[in-house]
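Notes to self after the Tuesday call (sharing in case useful).
The group wants a holo model before anyone commits to mutagenesis around the pocket. I volunteered. Ligand is pyridoxal-5'-phosphate. Logging inputs and output together so the record is complete.
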Amino acid sequence: MSDLEMQLLLSSNEVDDAFGSVAPAIHQSSLFTFPTYDALEERFSGKSEADIYSRTSNPTVRLLEDKLAKLERGDAAIAFGSGMAAISGAVLSLVKAGDRIVSTFNTYSDAYRLFEILMARLGVSVTYVDCNDIDELSNALVGARLLFLESPSSYVFETCDIKKATDVAKQHGVITIFDNSFASPLGQKPLLHGADIVVHSISKYLSGHSDVVAGCVVGSHDLINQIRDTALPLLGAKLSAMEAWLVIRGLRTLPMRLREHQEAADFVVGKLKDDSRIAKIHRAMPSSTLSGAGGLFTVELADGLDVRAFCDALKVFRLGVSWGGFESLALPASVAARIDSGPNALQKFGVSRNAIRLFTGLEGREVLLADICQALTAAESMEKSR
Ligand SMILES: *Cc1c(COP(=O)(O)O)cnc(C)c1O
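Result:
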């Protein structure tokens, strides 16, 4: 897909440009009516594809789904009410009691809790592996139903060799679900490297304005239909037309937003990497499948610097979870670990108590660097005054 084709895809408005409107219509309707008995019957017997009810399909949501499917190079997509609805919808549609899931050990915390709490209750077991240890992965995949991957991981940004891992899964006849929220479809396209299903938290880069919680799954017609038939009518985890519209708006600026997030992070990391007040910086390593590290990186303050004083001194960076919107954000690992995955969360993150994950927003790279530098000074003087 050329840059021109992508820009046309991101800004297209196929559904209803009858009036020449540049923004799509929001079909804020719970149900859709039929002119005659025969038209209604044709639809219910599957001979036509008109929308019936917005829990399962809606024209505005479908416009978003078409864009997402094409961006990820899948046949079809389903938009959900959150990233977790997409993950749980995909998993619950494809497993039954007695099945086993193999998952990378460093998943998003609520995906981990889905496996530990809900899957366990339903009689589905989960084996955690280091997905780059191909022998361990291969052994774990014997008799498994699903492989769940996420790469890069969202604290220290470990990456997984998608091609190698999905090759092994294919040898064992196991379906791979890949959480691509970190990279977005512009940074990485797992379906092109062997994954069967891609899931996203749209709440991050794809929506891009910190005003929507949404998710999606993308894959082949066959798998997406299986998920659609279960997750939408029976679990009811739909996305609303209004929120789909906000995401469509956000998609128009996705390439330029991502470029600025990444360049701002490059700039800030470049300036901070030799600062003696910072012990370590973690950032995703671009690879043959991952084109860039985006706006996320984690700093570990040097011994003695006060994490609390650093966080409280930040003015532009705000303290909070998530990422991908306008605002720069900071999340101290010591606090994140409290709501995260159990007693070994920090160890699982692979960072010390002095780690803070930073996200560079769109406020301007010089402003962001200055904010971090003044907060480092505050964290240092707190130490000296003790
Ligand atoms: C945020 C996130 C999720 C969950 O998505 P929600 O939209 O918050 O439900 C899942 N996976 C990753 C990697 C995430 O960053």
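Two things stood out.
The mean pLDDT is 94.
Residues 82-84, 108, 150, 154, 179, 181-182, 201, 203-204, 213, 215 surround pyridoxal-5'-phosphate (CB under 6 Å).
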